[in-house]
Amino acid sequence: MLEVLAGIGRNGRTGGYQRDAWSPPELELREWFRQEADARGMDRHEDRNGNLWAWWGDPDRKPGVVTGSHLDSVREGGAFDGPLGVVSAFHAVDALRASGFTPSRPLGIVSFSDEEGARFGVPCVGSRLLTGILPPERARGLTGDDGVTLAEVMRAQGRDPAALGRDRETLARVSVFVELHIEQGRALTAPVGVAAAIWPHGRWRFDFHGTADHAGTTALADRNDPTLRYAQAVLSAREVAEKLGVVATFGKVLIQPNNANAIPSLVSAWLDARGADEDAVRRLVAELSEGQEVVCESWTPEVAFPAALRDRVAAIAGDPAPILPTGAGHDAGILASAGIPAAMLFVRNPTGVSHSPAEFAEPGDCAAGVTALAAVLADLCGE
Ligand code: GLV
Ligand code: MN
Ligand code: MN
Ligand code: MN
Protein backbone atom coordinates (compact mmCIF):
# COMPACT_ATOMS: atom_id res chain seq x y z
CA MET A 1 0.00 0.00 0.00
CA LEU A 2 2.84 2.42 0.75
CA GLU A 3 4.13 1.71 -2.74
CA VAL A 4 0.73 2.63 -4.20
CA LEU A 5 0.86 5.92 -2.28
CA ALA A 6 4.50 6.58 -3.12
CA GLY A 7 3.72 8.47 -6.32
CA ILE A 8 1.08 10.80 -4.86
CA GLY A 9 2.30 14.34 -4.19
CA ARG A 10 5.95 13.39 -4.66
CA ASN A 11 8.49 15.89 -5.92
CA GLY A 12 10.41 13.88 -8.52
CA ARG A 13 13.49 16.06 -8.11
CA THR A 14 13.87 15.80 -4.32
CA GLY A 15 11.81 12.74 -3.43
CA GLY A 16 9.92 14.85 -0.87
CA TYR A 17 6.13 14.91 -0.47
CA GLN A 18 3.83 17.90 -0.69
CA ARG A 19 0.44 16.84 0.64
CA ASP A 20 -1.14 20.00 2.04
CA ALA A 21 -4.65 19.57 3.43
CA TRP A 22 -7.28 19.78 0.68
CA SER A 23 -4.65 20.05 -2.09
CA PRO A 24 -4.99 17.80 -5.18
CA PRO A 25 -2.57 15.11 -3.87
CA GLU A 26 -4.29 15.06 -0.48
CA LEU A 27 -7.69 14.72 -2.20
CA GLU A 28 -6.24 11.78 -4.13
CA LEU A 29 -5.18 10.19 -0.83
CA ARG A 30 -8.70 10.70 0.52
CA GLU A 31 -10.05 8.87 -2.52
CA TRP A 32 -7.55 6.07 -1.89
CA PHE A 33 -8.86 5.79 1.71
CA ARG A 34 -12.44 5.50 0.46
CA GLN A 35 -11.48 2.80 -2.01
CA GLU A 36 -9.60 0.77 0.62
CA ALA A 37 -12.60 1.00 2.96
CA ASP A 38 -15.00 -0.04 0.17
CA ALA A 39 -12.75 -2.91 -0.89
CA ARG A 40 -13.11 -4.31 2.64
CA GLY A 41 -16.84 -3.71 2.85
CA MET A 42 -16.33 -1.25 5.68
CA ASP A 43 -18.92 1.48 6.31
CA ARG A 44 -17.25 4.77 5.71
CA HIS A 45 -18.08 8.37 6.28
CA GLU A 46 -16.48 11.78 6.41
CA ASP A 47 -17.35 13.71 9.54
CA ARG A 48 -18.19 17.40 9.47
CA ASN A 49 -14.57 18.33 10.22
CA GLY A 50 -13.21 16.47 7.22
CA ASN A 51 -11.90 13.42 9.08
CA LEU A 52 -12.39 10.10 7.28
CA TRP A 53 -13.72 7.02 9.10
CA ALA A 54 -14.18 3.39 8.07
CA TRP A 55 -15.92 0.85 10.29
CA TRP A 56 -15.92 -2.90 10.67
CA GLY A 57 -19.05 -3.30 12.78
CA ASP A 58 -21.61 -0.72 13.85
CA PRO A 59 -20.22 1.98 16.17
CA ASP A 60 -23.71 3.27 16.94
CA ARG A 61 -24.51 -0.03 18.61
CA LYS A 62 -21.38 -0.01 20.78
CA PRO A 63 -18.42 2.42 20.82
CA GLY A 64 -15.46 1.04 18.94
CA VAL A 65 -11.72 0.60 19.04
CA VAL A 66 -10.19 3.02 16.54
CA THR A 67 -6.80 3.14 14.88
CA GLY A 68 -5.31 5.36 12.17
CA SER A 69 -3.31 8.53 11.69
CA HIS A 70 -3.17 11.16 8.91
CA LEU A 71 -2.45 11.37 5.18
CA ASP A 72 -1.28 14.98 4.80
CA SER A 73 2.41 15.86 5.04
CA VAL A 74 4.75 18.70 5.86
CA ARG A 75 6.22 20.36 2.77
CA GLU A 76 9.01 18.15 1.41
CA GLY A 77 8.05 15.50 3.95
CA GLY A 78 8.78 11.80 4.01
CA ALA A 79 6.66 8.85 2.92
CA PHE A 80 5.90 7.48 6.40
CA ASP A 81 4.84 10.33 8.72
CA GLY A 82 1.10 9.80 8.72
CA PRO A 83 0.45 7.28 5.95
CA LEU A 84 2.27 4.47 7.81
CA GLY A 85 -0.41 4.60 10.50
CA VAL A 86 -3.30 4.51 8.03
CA VAL A 87 -1.77 1.80 5.86
CA SER A 88 -0.93 -0.28 8.97
CA ALA A 89 -4.52 0.09 10.13
CA PHE A 90 -5.88 -1.47 6.92
CA HIS A 91 -3.23 -4.21 7.07
CA ALA A 92 -4.09 -4.94 10.70
CA VAL A 93 -7.77 -5.34 9.78
CA ASP A 94 -6.75 -7.71 6.97
CA ALA A 95 -4.57 -9.72 9.35
CA LEU A 96 -7.33 -10.00 11.94
CA ARG A 97 -9.86 -11.08 9.34
CA ALA A 98 -7.45 -13.63 7.85
CA SER A 99 -6.95 -15.10 11.32
CA GLY A 100 -10.71 -15.61 11.68
CA PHE A 101 -10.96 -13.05 14.49
CA THR A 102 -14.44 -11.66 15.18
CA PRO A 103 -14.32 -8.42 17.16
CA SER A 104 -16.84 -8.11 19.95
CA ARG A 105 -16.59 -4.33 19.50
CA PRO A 106 -16.63 -2.36 16.24
CA LEU A 107 -13.20 -1.61 14.84
CA GLY A 108 -12.66 1.75 13.16
CA ILE A 109 -9.99 3.29 10.97
CA VAL A 110 -9.58 7.06 10.89
CA SER A 111 -7.56 9.49 8.82
CA PHE A 112 -7.51 12.85 10.58
CA SER A 113 -7.62 15.97 8.44
CA ASP A 114 -4.68 18.42 8.34
CA GLU A 115 -2.46 16.98 11.05
CA GLU A 116 0.66 18.92 10.06
CA GLY A 117 -0.84 22.36 9.68
CA ALA A 118 1.47 22.93 6.69
CA ARG A 119 -1.08 25.06 4.90
CA PHE A 120 -3.02 26.92 7.59
CA GLY A 121 -0.47 27.04 10.40
CA VAL A 122 -2.33 25.16 13.14
CA PRO A 123 -1.51 21.44 13.52
CA CYS A 124 -4.07 18.68 14.15
CA VAL A 125 -6.97 20.78 12.83
CA GLY A 126 -9.25 17.74 12.29
CA SER A 127 -8.81 16.25 15.75
CA ARG A 128 -8.82 19.66 17.46
CA LEU A 129 -12.14 20.54 15.82
CA LEU A 130 -13.61 17.10 16.57
CA THR A 131 -12.80 17.42 20.27
CA GLY A 132 -13.74 21.09 20.52
CA ILE A 133 -10.19 22.20 21.35
CA LEU A 134 -10.10 24.46 18.28
CA PRO A 135 -13.05 26.88 18.08
CA PRO A 136 -14.75 26.55 14.68
CA GLU A 137 -14.80 30.32 14.08
CA ARG A 138 -11.01 30.38 14.47
CA ALA A 139 -10.65 27.37 12.13
CA ARG A 140 -12.81 28.98 9.44
CA GLY A 141 -10.58 32.04 9.44
CA LEU A 142 -7.24 30.20 9.26
CA THR A 143 -5.47 31.60 6.23
CA GLY A 144 -2.75 30.09 4.05
CA ASP A 145 0.18 32.04 2.61
CA ASP A 146 -1.89 32.49 -0.56
CA GLY A 147 -4.51 34.45 1.41
CA VAL A 148 -7.16 31.75 1.03
CA THR A 149 -9.01 30.67 4.19
CA LEU A 150 -9.78 27.14 5.33
CA ALA A 151 -13.49 27.98 5.02
CA GLU A 152 -13.02 28.98 1.38
CA VAL A 153 -10.97 25.87 0.61
CA MET A 154 -13.52 23.56 2.21
CA ARG A 155 -16.42 25.26 0.45
CA ALA A 156 -14.60 24.86 -2.88
CA GLN A 157 -14.38 21.14 -2.09
CA GLY A 158 -18.11 20.87 -1.47
CA ARG A 159 -17.85 20.80 2.33
CA ASP A 160 -19.81 23.04 4.67
CA PRO A 161 -17.53 25.18 6.84
CA ALA A 162 -20.54 26.22 8.94
CA ALA A 163 -20.72 22.61 10.18
CA LEU A 164 -17.19 22.63 11.63
CA GLY A 165 -16.81 22.10 15.36
CA ARG A 166 -17.09 19.72 18.26
CA ASP A 167 -18.74 16.52 17.11
CA ARG A 168 -20.16 14.59 20.07
CA GLU A 169 -21.83 11.98 17.86
CA THR A 170 -18.59 10.97 16.18
CA LEU A 171 -16.65 11.13 19.44
CA ALA A 172 -19.20 8.88 21.13
CA ARG A 173 -18.28 6.12 18.68
CA VAL A 174 -14.70 6.01 19.95
CA SER A 175 -13.98 4.05 23.12
CA VAL A 176 -10.22 3.95 22.63
CA PHE A 177 -7.75 5.21 19.99
CA VAL A 178 -4.41 3.65 19.07
CA GLU A 179 -2.20 5.53 16.60
CA LEU A 180 0.75 3.82 14.94
CA HIS A 181 3.44 6.25 13.72
CA ILE A 182 7.00 6.19 12.50
CA GLU A 183 9.38 7.20 15.30
CA GLN A 184 10.76 10.63 14.47
CA GLY A 185 13.88 10.78 16.60
CA ARG A 186 16.85 8.59 17.36
CA ALA A 187 15.59 7.09 20.61
CA LEU A 188 13.99 3.82 19.48
CA THR A 189 16.35 0.87 18.86
CA ALA A 190 13.75 -1.94 19.04
CA PRO A 191 11.48 -2.49 16.01
CA VAL A 192 8.40 -1.23 17.89
CA GLY A 193 8.00 1.13 20.85
CA VAL A 194 5.19 2.79 22.78
CA ALA A 195 4.65 6.49 23.53
CA ALA A 196 4.89 7.69 27.11
CA ALA A 197 4.13 11.37 26.58
CA ILE A 198 4.16 14.19 24.06
CA TRP A 199 6.18 17.25 24.96
CA PRO A 200 4.35 20.55 25.32
CA HIS A 201 4.81 22.49 22.10
CA GLY A 202 3.60 25.51 20.21
CA ARG A 203 4.00 27.86 17.28
CA TRP A 204 4.41 31.63 17.44
CA ARG A 205 4.53 34.16 14.60
CA PHE A 206 7.03 36.98 14.99
CA ASP A 207 6.45 40.07 12.84
CA PHE A 208 9.49 42.29 12.37
CA HIS A 209 8.50 45.54 10.70
CA GLY A 210 10.91 47.66 8.71
CA THR A 211 10.91 50.39 6.11
CA ALA A 212 11.10 49.45 2.46
CA ASP A 213 13.79 51.34 0.61
CA HIS A 214 16.34 51.08 -2.17
CA ALA A 215 19.20 48.61 -1.61
CA GLY A 216 21.67 50.76 -3.51
CA THR A 217 20.86 54.30 -2.49
CA THR A 218 20.04 53.94 1.21
CA ALA A 219 23.04 54.46 3.49
CA LEU A 220 23.44 51.79 6.18
CA ALA A 221 22.87 54.39 8.87
CA ASP A 222 19.54 55.40 7.34
CA ARG A 223 18.04 51.90 7.19
CA ASN A 224 15.27 50.30 9.19
CA ASP A 225 16.02 46.73 8.10
CA PRO A 226 13.83 44.07 9.78
CA THR A 227 16.07 41.20 8.68
CA LEU A 228 18.63 42.27 11.30
CA ARG A 229 16.13 41.79 14.13
CA TYR A 230 15.01 38.51 12.58
CA ALA A 231 18.61 37.27 12.39
CA GLN A 232 19.15 38.30 16.00
CA ALA A 233 16.01 36.38 17.05
CA VAL A 234 17.26 33.20 15.34
CA LEU A 235 20.60 33.43 17.15
CA SER A 236 18.91 34.20 20.47
CA ALA A 237 16.52 31.27 20.05
CA ARG A 238 19.46 28.90 19.81
CA GLU A 239 21.24 30.45 22.76
CA VAL A 240 18.19 30.55 25.04
CA ALA A 241 17.10 27.04 24.04
CA GLU A 242 20.52 25.70 24.99
CA LYS A 243 20.38 27.56 28.29
CA LEU A 244 16.90 26.24 29.16
CA GLY A 245 17.26 22.70 27.77
CA VAL A 246 14.48 22.94 25.16
CA VAL A 247 14.39 23.02 21.35
CA ALA A 248 13.50 26.04 19.23
CA THR A 249 13.24 26.36 15.46
CA PHE A 250 12.52 29.19 13.05
CA GLY A 251 11.62 26.85 10.17
CA LYS A 252 9.42 29.19 8.17
CA VAL A 253 10.00 32.78 7.17
CA LEU A 254 8.22 35.13 4.76
CA ILE A 255 9.92 38.31 3.64
CA GLN A 256 7.92 41.11 2.07
CA PRO A 257 7.97 42.17 -0.60
CA ASN A 258 10.92 39.80 -1.27
CA ASN A 259 13.09 41.81 -3.66
CA ALA A 260 16.83 41.23 -3.90
CA ASN A 261 17.35 44.97 -4.39
CA ALA A 262 15.13 46.42 -1.67
CA ILE A 263 15.17 46.59 2.10
CA PRO A 264 12.16 44.54 3.22
CA SER A 265 9.15 46.10 4.90
CA LEU A 266 8.23 43.01 6.90
CA VAL A 267 9.74 39.71 8.01
CA SER A 268 7.27 37.18 9.42
CA ALA A 269 8.99 34.22 11.05
CA TRP A 270 7.48 31.23 12.81
CA LEU A 271 9.00 29.90 16.00
CA ASP A 272 8.34 26.25 16.90
CA ALA A 273 9.33 25.62 20.52
CA ARG A 274 9.10 22.40 22.51
CA GLY A 275 10.58 20.68 25.51
CA ALA A 276 9.96 18.25 28.32
CA ASP A 277 9.52 21.16 30.75
CA GLU A 278 6.55 23.38 29.98
CA ASP A 279 7.84 26.24 32.15
CA ALA A 280 11.11 26.25 30.23
CA VAL A 281 9.29 26.43 26.88
CA ARG A 282 7.20 29.33 28.15
CA ARG A 283 10.28 31.10 29.51
CA LEU A 284 12.02 30.76 26.14
CA VAL A 285 9.06 32.28 24.32
CA ALA A 286 8.78 35.08 26.88
CA GLU A 287 12.47 35.93 26.54
CA LEU A 288 12.38 35.97 22.75
CA SER A 289 9.13 37.96 22.68
CA GLU A 290 10.44 40.88 24.71
CA GLY A 291 9.80 44.06 22.73
CA GLN A 292 8.58 42.07 19.71
CA GLU A 293 5.22 41.69 18.01
CA VAL A 294 4.37 38.02 18.59
CA VAL A 295 1.17 36.02 18.00
CA CYS A 296 0.71 32.54 19.50
CA GLU A 297 -0.80 30.43 16.69
CA SER A 298 -1.04 27.14 18.57
CA TRP A 299 -0.20 25.73 21.96
CA THR A 300 -0.43 22.10 23.03
CA PRO A 301 0.19 21.33 26.71
CA GLU A 302 2.03 18.18 27.72
CA VAL A 303 0.11 14.95 27.13
CA ALA A 304 0.95 11.91 29.24
CA PHE A 305 -0.78 8.86 27.78
CA PRO A 306 -2.83 6.91 30.35
CA ALA A 307 -0.42 4.58 32.15
CA ALA A 308 -2.53 1.42 32.37
CA LEU A 309 -3.34 1.45 28.63
CA ARG A 310 0.26 2.37 27.76
CA ASP A 311 1.62 -0.57 29.78
CA ARG A 312 -0.96 -2.94 28.36
CA VAL A 313 -0.01 -1.93 24.82
CA ALA A 314 3.71 -2.26 25.63
CA ALA A 315 3.18 -5.76 27.05
CA ILE A 316 1.40 -6.88 23.87
CA ALA A 317 3.78 -5.11 21.44
CA GLY A 318 7.03 -6.52 22.89
CA ASP A 319 8.36 -8.10 26.03
CA PRO A 320 7.60 -5.38 26.90
CA ALA A 321 8.14 -2.83 24.11
CA PRO A 322 10.24 0.18 25.14
CA ILE A 323 8.29 3.21 26.32
CA LEU A 324 9.57 6.62 25.22
CA PRO A 325 8.52 10.27 25.18
CA THR A 326 8.41 12.26 21.96
CA GLY A 327 8.85 15.84 20.84
CA ALA A 328 6.49 15.30 17.88
CA GLY A 329 2.82 16.20 18.02
CA HIS A 330 0.08 13.71 17.12
CA ASP A 331 -3.71 13.43 16.87
CA ALA A 332 -3.52 10.72 19.57
CA GLY A 333 -2.26 13.43 21.92
CA ILE A 334 -5.20 15.67 21.08
CA LEU A 335 -7.69 12.86 21.73
CA ALA A 336 -5.94 11.95 24.99
CA SER A 337 -6.05 15.55 26.16
CA ALA A 338 -9.81 15.52 25.46
CA GLY A 339 -10.20 12.55 27.79
CA ILE A 340 -10.39 9.74 25.22
CA PRO A 341 -8.19 6.78 26.21
CA ALA A 342 -5.37 6.81 23.66
CA ALA A 343 -2.06 5.09 23.06
CA MET A 344 0.65 5.15 20.40
CA LEU A 345 2.89 2.57 18.78
CA PHE A 346 6.15 3.75 17.20
CA VAL A 347 7.97 1.93 14.40
CA ARG A 348 11.76 2.23 14.41
CA ASN A 349 13.36 4.82 12.18
CA PRO A 350 17.00 3.76 11.63
CA THR A 351 18.38 7.27 11.05
CA GLY A 352 15.88 9.14 13.19
CA VAL A 353 15.33 11.63 10.34
CA SER A 354 11.77 12.86 9.83
CA HIS A 355 9.94 15.78 8.20
CA SER A 356 12.41 15.20 5.37
CA PRO A 357 12.53 13.04 2.24
CA ALA A 358 15.21 10.97 4.05
CA GLU A 359 12.64 9.62 6.53
CA PHE A 360 12.74 5.81 6.41
CA ALA A 361 11.56 2.61 8.07
CA GLU A 362 12.63 -0.92 7.14
CA PRO A 363 9.86 -3.08 5.61
CA GLY A 364 10.50 -5.70 8.31
CA ASP A 365 9.93 -3.11 11.04
CA CYS A 366 6.75 -1.89 9.35
CA ALA A 367 5.52 -5.51 9.30
CA ALA A 368 6.39 -5.83 13.00
CA GLY A 369 4.35 -2.68 13.58
CA VAL A 370 1.32 -4.20 11.83
CA THR A 371 1.65 -7.41 13.85
CA ALA A 372 1.85 -5.44 17.08
CA LEU A 373 -1.06 -3.19 16.09
CA ALA A 374 -3.24 -6.18 15.14
CA ALA A 375 -2.49 -7.84 18.49
CA VAL A 376 -3.30 -4.65 20.39
CA LEU A 377 -6.56 -4.16 18.48
CA ALA A 378 -7.54 -7.79 19.05
CA ASP A 379 -6.93 -7.39 22.76
CA LEU A 380 -8.90 -4.13 22.98
CA CYS A 381 -11.72 -5.45 20.76
CA GLY A 382 -12.03 -8.58 22.84
CA GLU A 383 -13.52 -6.70 25.77
C1 GLV B 1 4.02 17.27 13.53
O1 GLV B 1 4.45 16.23 13.10
C2 GLV B 1 4.74 17.97 14.51
O2 GLV B 1 5.08 17.38 15.53
O3 GLV B 1 5.05 19.12 14.26
MN1 MN C 1 4.73 15.21 11.11
MN1 MN D 1 2.52 12.53 11.85
MN1 MN E 1 2.76 15.23 13.98
Automatic annotation (TrEMBL):
Keywords: Hydrolase, Metal-binding, Zinc
Cofactor(s) for this UniProt protein: Zn(2+)
Residues that, per the record, bind allantoate: 203, 261, 274
Keyword Metal-binding: yes
Chain residues that bind Zn(2+) 1: 70, 81, 181
Pfam families with a match to the protein in the record: Peptidase_M20 (PF01546)
UniProt-recorded Gene Ontology molecular function terms: hydrolase activity, acting on carbon-nitrogen (but not peptide) bonds, in linear amidines; metal ion binding
The keyword Hydrolase is assigned to this record: yes
SUPFAM superfamilies: Bacterial exopeptidase dimerisation domain (SSF55031), Zn-dependent exopeptidases (SSF53187)
Cofactor notes: Binds 2 Zn(2+) ions per subunit.
Gene3D superfamilies: 3.30.70.360, Zn peptidases
Positions that bind Zn(2+) 2: 81, 116, 355
PANTHER family tied to this protein: ALLANTOATE AMIDOHYDROLASE, ALLANTOATE DEIMINASE-RELATED
Family membership: Belongs to the peptidase M20 family.
Name used for this protein in its record: Zn-dependent hydrolase
Organism in which the protein naturally occurs: Acrocarpospora pleiomorpha
